[in-house]
Automatic annotation (TrEMBL):
One family name in Pfam for this protein: adh_short
Organism lineage: Bacteria, Bacillati, Bacillota, Bacilli, Bacillales
Species this protein is from: Paenibacillus zeirhizosphaerae
Keywords for this protein: Oxidoreductase
Family stated for the protein in its record: Belongs to the short-chain dehydrogenases/reductases (SDR) family.
InterPro entries in the record: NAD(P)-bd_dom_sf (IPR036291), SDR_fam (IPR002347)
Presence of the UniProt keyword GTP-binding in the record: no
Protein name (Swiss-Prot/TrEMBL): Oxidoreductase
């Protein structure tokens, strides 16, 4: 990119259908707004309909050329994920963009409806299940993309297979980093499996840098530093919008802000060595299918001798 990429560079989205999870505020709302203005039909998939409806009305007040539709989705309850997928499939035959944006950061220890630690359950497992349940719609849509929002915190993440639910020694920041590393491992493994299956759907990951959003509401330390370091949600959404719409995006790309990955225009960035561990990614995939009971119709990529222990 020779000049800083902005929302104005987005191509027309007329005729496209997009789902944005957690879009009642912050980066998710900005993504829904920008896509609707460019002509997309945007499904605002939110846990709280009471919060989502006025958020949708704020977008409609901007008179976008696309449509804005609110649907209930609680990623902390797999029954809700199934209900959302069923309702979507009944109404739409195509899905151009699935933006896995919703997330929770650094909360007190809680479990999801199915008993998973909240951050792992919502940030990773909920989106893993949602993507799997909608994958046939994505694969049937030319040019479809799956954009999953990770975090720069993934760099300190480790997948604790013996303590995924953090029932021992819960540390909110460590659990968050694990969930964000899981987002990247999932994205890269999904892309490998899509290629193996001969599908054109792209799996891409992003992170928003340091952005002032509701996701950090549980961290008083981060909130105190927001006025100094954080960029606005309107800037933080740019990596997501780039990954979702730019013509030069390739499967398995990872985008973040350009200035020390904290703020600025979007660019392709590198992720941690752990995020590229294919053996861990395959194991996480298997565990995720078992925990969510959502089985993907995608075979794993070929494993060569040098990958074996």
């Amino acid at each position: 990119m020779t000049t800083p990429w902005t929302e104005d560079h987005m191509p027309d989205q007329t005729g496209r259908v997009a789902i944005v999870t957690g879009s009642n505020s912050g980066i998710g709302w900005e993504a829904a707004r920008a896509l609707a203005i460019k002509g997309a039909t945007v499904i605002m998939a939110c846990r709280s309909i009471a919060k989502a409806n006025p958020a949708a009305d704020r977008i409609r007040a901007l008179k976008p050329s696309g449509k804005v539709i609110v649907m209930a989705l609680d990623l902390g309850d797999l029954a809700s994920v199934h209900a959302f997928a069923t309702a979507f499939r009944q109404n739409y035959q195509r899905l151009d963009l699935l933006i896995n944006n919703a997330g929770v950061a650094h909360p007190p220890y809680r479990k999801t409806a199915q008993g998973f630690e909240q951050q792992f359950g919502i940030n990773h497992l909920g989106h893993f299940a949602l993507t799997g349940l909608l994958l046939d719609r994505l694969n049937a849509t030319p040019g479809a993309r799956i954009v999953t929002v990770s975090s720069i915190s993934h760099r300190s993440g480790i997948i604790h297979f013996d303590n995924l639910n953090w029932e021992r020694k819960y540390k909110p920041a460590h659990a968050y980093a694990q969930s964000k590393l899981a987002n990247l491992l999932f994205t890269y493994e999904l892309q490998r499996r899509l290629v193996t299956a001969g599908q054109s759907t792209l799996a891409v990951a992003v992170h928003p840098g340091w952005s002032a959003t509701n996701a950090l509401r549980h961290s008083s330390f981060m909130r105190r530093l927001n006025p100094i370091f954080a960029q606005t949600s309107k800037m933080g959404v740019l990596p997501t919008l780039y990954a979702a719409t730019a013509p030069d995006v390739r499967g398995g790309d990872f985008f973040g802000p350009s200035s020390l990955e904290l703020r600025g225009s979007p660019e392709k960035v590198a992720s941690s060595t752990r995020s590229h561990d294919e053996a861990v990614a395959r194991r996480l995939w298997t565990v995720s299918e078992e925990l969510t009971q959502v089985k993907y119709a995608l075979a794993p990529a070929a494993v060569f001798d040098e990958d074996l222990p």
